[in-house]
Design brief:
With 258 residues, the protein is mainly α. The chain is 55% helix and 0% strand. The longest helix has 27 residues.
Length: 258
């Protein structure tokens, strides 16, 4: 893998990441609306731990929610965490997402209580732990910033991996958190760190040096070799030399004849 820094991520990448996250959340709402409109009960599509007929729920349980309140509580963190994951780790995040979905569901099937477990809270916990642990492992500026943001917003998820309320599937939270942590270790170097913005003082020093060099080049006399030749002397062509007799002056003594 090329470990060189990639260009900084900008607004278009953030918009695409947000649209992908919004599309996934829209699917969850569509499932709930179909369930309500059709008078259906999709609880049987959840995970039933240690039962063979509960295994398909590993694929479908995150799509099913007990109520609109339950759906809203998962939609907001999913939208935020998926956007951050896709924006900052475009290559590793989708691998982590699939791994959290499947491994978290399998862990829930292995350790869960004998009941139907539904909802995407295991996925949200997995994404939160994935982003937070990546900040601890990578330690580049963007990874640390993202880890601090997700911990500030959803640090309470650390507590919800333990038994608290009877009707809340802490097993799904714990399985998702473990899957997200493992995914962070597996794909911590999948995405090279983004190019760090340079400090303003370095840019100012470079601009001053370039301006100084430009001024020196303007006032410095060019070297002879750099002066363009505007006229070439034609080659020396010798013609016929005509000799004219020298005129004698009046006061000059005439030549002596012998």
């Amino acid at each position: 893998m090329d470990t060189t820094a990639i260009p900084p991520r900008e607004t278009p990448q953030l918009k695409r990441a947000g649209l992908l996250a919004l599309a996934f959340v829209a699917v969850l709402w569509l499932v709930k609306l179909v369930e309500i409109a059709g008078g259906l009960d999709l609880t049987d599509f959840g995970v039933r731990p240690l039962e063979s007929y509960g295994l398909p729920g590993i694929l479908t349980a995150p799509l099913v929610h007990a109520s609109f309140e339950h759906l809203i509580m998962n939609s907001v963190p999913l939208l935020v965490l998926l956007t951050l994951a896709r924006f900052n780790y475009p290559s590793g995040s989708w691998r982590a997402f699939v791994f959290i979905w499947l491994a978290g569901g399998l862990g829930l099937w292995l350790i869960g209580r004998p009941s139907w477990h539904i909802g995407a809270s295991g996925v949200t916990h997995g994404l939160m732990f994935y982003l937070f642990v990546l900040g601890l492992l990578r330690r580049d500026r963007y990874a640390i910033a993202v880890a601090m943001i997700v911990f500030f917003l959803y640090g309470g998820m650390v507590v919800t991996v333990l038994p608290r309320e009877a009707h809340v599937s802490w097993e799904a939270h714990l399985s998702g958190a473990l899957a997200g942590t493992i995914a962070a270790f597996l794909w911590q170097r999948r995405d090279p760190p983004a190019q760090q913005p340079r400090p303003s003082w370095e840019l100012e020093e470079e601009a001053a040096a370039e301006a100084k060099a430009a001024d020196a080049a303007t006032y410095e006399m060019p070297r002879p070799a750099q002066v363009p030749v505007l006229w070439h002397r034609p080659p020396d062509e010798r013609g016929v030399i005509l000799e004219f007799p020298r005129r004698r002056r009046d006061d000059e003594t005439p030549p002596t004849l012998h």
